[in-house]
Design a protein that fits this description.
Elements (H helix, E strand, L loop, with lengths): L10 H4 L5 E8 L11 H11 L8 E5 L15 E11 L1 H8 L41 E4 L6 H4 L3 H19 L9 H8 L1
Antiparallel strand pairs: 1-3, 2-3, 2-4
């Protein structure tokens, strides 16, 4: 809270790893000209990026950056709400989707799978000179079946992404920290 407001929370808000069966996939990756596309075209891109979603029941909606083509011309700006075939925890969801995270060609923001994570949806402020383009349709409902994370993790795409992710983690673990902590003696002159 800031100094003027207080927030009340319920016990459930503070609980860890509440099982979820409806999840949000926040496609924040970039694709040339993506922010000019209709919601149907963006949904098609999401299916091409993550074929396991083909035939899965979902609700798609344009996220807050949709239409801000001057600032975010290539931003996919798409959220898909998907029902799982069984409940999963945030920890499991993060583990499954971090392989498709930002910086990968798919670009799903997996940080959303965190306990007590707020995800704001208001439009960004980019100044008076930029007005977002408007879209005839901002929400799309697609019929289908529930998403099975188990089946997803058996796909070649997921296995390959997992292998790449493990390789990146291995490389990152071998990089030494180039930041050296200053000693009290080094800082002595700054505080006098």
């Amino acid at each position: 809270t800031d100094q003027t407001k207080s927030i009340r929370v319920t016990k459930e808000y503070l609980e860890h790893d509440i099982p979820r069966y409806i999840i949000q996939l926040d496609f924040d990756g970039e694709c040339e000209g993506a922010n000019f596309l209709t919601i149907e075209e963006r949904d098609d891109i999401a299916i091409k990026l993550l074929p396991v979603l083909e035939g899965v029941k979902r609700v798609a909606h344009l996220s807050n950056k949709a239409g801000f083509v001057h600032e975010y011309p290539n931003h996919l700006a798409l959220r898909l709400y998907v029902e799982l075939d069984r409940h999963s925890s945030n920890k499991t969801l993060r583990t499954v989707f971090e392989k498709y995270g930002l910086g990968t060609p798919i670009g799903i923001d997996h940080s959303i799978f965190s306990n007590r994570r707020k995800h704001l949806i208001q439009r960004p402020t980019v100044g008076d000179e930029y007005t977002p383009i408007e879209f005839e349709q901002r929400i799309l409902k697609m019929p289908g079946s529930k998403l099975s994370l188990e089946k997803m993790m058996k796909t070649e795409q997921w296995k390959e992404a997992n292998k790449d992710f493990k390789a990146m983690k291995d490389i990152a673990s071998k990089i030494t920290d180039s930041h050296v902590k200053a000693s009290k003696e080094d800082l002595k002159g700054l505080t006098e």
